[in-house]
């Protein structure tokens, strides 16, 4: 079932594989600003499909941290781990229409093709062994306009090939789950990190195949660590401090090209940032976050 896309709606969709770090805070704040500036809702979704990577208690900790930063979901938090049957129904629709097929190809099978799955499988069906399921990619250039990065396009057949939408271990892959959930929750604006820019054409293809409306997209610059790599929970990036949110919140606004006020409370700082929000100030280039200590306001 799809939620009606009448009211603007943005979302923040972390994976509970660790505590909230600065890069994720940037995505949360950026998506919140876009949604609120459009007069819309902002919701939180837990993308917890990968049970092996989930850290016990991380989902609850992320929600508590968002609350400390003045970021409250406008709807109950959806957990992808509870929606297997809904994703399976979407897979059935794609399969029945000829847009998805079972595949027993391994990564080793695809090495001669640069890891890109061609239009036909390399490996034969293996009775008794579960397959993955792949989306059938047409000869088509997928193009879209990104609110930050401008015109984008990708030749899916040449650059990606037929891609996995249902894992061999069982359960939906990210690309299918996110498309189904965005449609179900009425998400009109997908604002997220630029590391997911490459996923967007695949998601647009699935939206078209399933008859879903296409959201607007904006891909935020990535926050880099001292080593020049993207901050992530998997690289042990420092978590933001829920007991002292203001320095990191100011840093996130500066990172997004905005000018934070001297407000002393997260809700007030966000409210004033919203009044002055200008999306065209958001940089395209990845960068290191501003030093939090320099943004601490002793007067507060």
What's the overall geometry? Answer: elongated
CATH architecture of the largest domain: 3-Layer(aba) Sandwich
CATH topology of the largest domain: Rossmann fold
Low-confidence segments: none
Give the mean pLDDT: 92
Strand order of the largest sheet: 1-2-3
Strand content range: 15-25%
Assigned CATH superfamily of the largest domain: HUPs
What is the structural class? alpha/beta
Cα separation of the termini: 47 Å
What is the CATH top level name of the largest domain? Answer: Alpha Beta
Query: Share of helix among residues?
Result: 25-40%
Tally of discrete structural domains = 2
User: Number of DSSP helices?
Assistant: 9
Order of helices and strands: EHEHEHEHEEEHEHEHEHH
Describe this structure in words.
This protein is α/β, with parallel strands linked by helices and 300 residues long. The chain has 2 domains: 9-81 and 183-295, HUPs (Rossmann fold, 3-Layer(aba) Sandwich), CATH 3.40.50.620; 84-176, HUPs (Rossmann fold). The protein is built from 9 helices and 10 strands. The strands form 4 sheets. Strands 1-2-3 form a 3-stranded parallel β-sheet. The longest helix has 16 residues, at 22-37. The protein is elongated. The model has no long low-confidence stretch (mean pLDDT 92).
């Amino acid at each position: 079932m799809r939620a009606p896309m009448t009211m603007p709606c943005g979302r923040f969709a972390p994976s509970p594989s660790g505590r909230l770090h600065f890069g994720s805070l940037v995505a949360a704040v950026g998506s919140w600003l876009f949604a609120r500036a459009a007069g819309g809702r902002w919701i939180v979704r837990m993308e917890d499909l990968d049970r092996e990577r989930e850290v016990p208690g991380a989902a609850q900790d992320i929600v508590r941290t968002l609350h400390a930063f003045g970021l409250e979901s406008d709807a109950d938090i959806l957990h992808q781990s509870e929606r297997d049957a809904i994703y399976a129904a979407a897979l059935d629709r794609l399969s029945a229409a000829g847009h998805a097929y079972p595949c027993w190809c391994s990564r080793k099978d695809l090495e001669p093709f640069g890891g890109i799955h061609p239009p036909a499988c390399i490996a034969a069906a293996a009775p008794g062994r579960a397959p993955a399921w792949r989306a059938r990619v047409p000869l088509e250039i997928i193009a879209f306009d990104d609110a930050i990065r401008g015109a984008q396009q990708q030749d899916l057949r040449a650059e990606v090939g037929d891609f996995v939408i249902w894992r061999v271990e069982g359960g939906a892959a990210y690309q299918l789950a996110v498309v189904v959930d965005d449609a179900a929750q009425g998400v009109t604006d997908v604002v997220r990190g630029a590391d997911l820019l490459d996923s967007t054409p695949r998601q647009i293809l699935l939206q078209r195949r399933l008859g879903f409306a296409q959201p607007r997209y904006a891909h935020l610059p990535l926050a880099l660590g001292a080593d020049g790599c993207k901050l992530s929970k998997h690289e042990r990036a420092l978590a933001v401090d829920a007991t002292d949110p203001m320095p990191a919140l100011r840093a996130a606004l500066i990172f997004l090209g905005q000018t934070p006020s001297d407000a002393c409370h997260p809700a007030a700082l966000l409210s004033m940032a919203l009044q002055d929000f200008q999306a065209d100030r958001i940089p395209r280039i990845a960068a290191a976050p501003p030093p939090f200590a320099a943004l601490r306001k002793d007067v507060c």
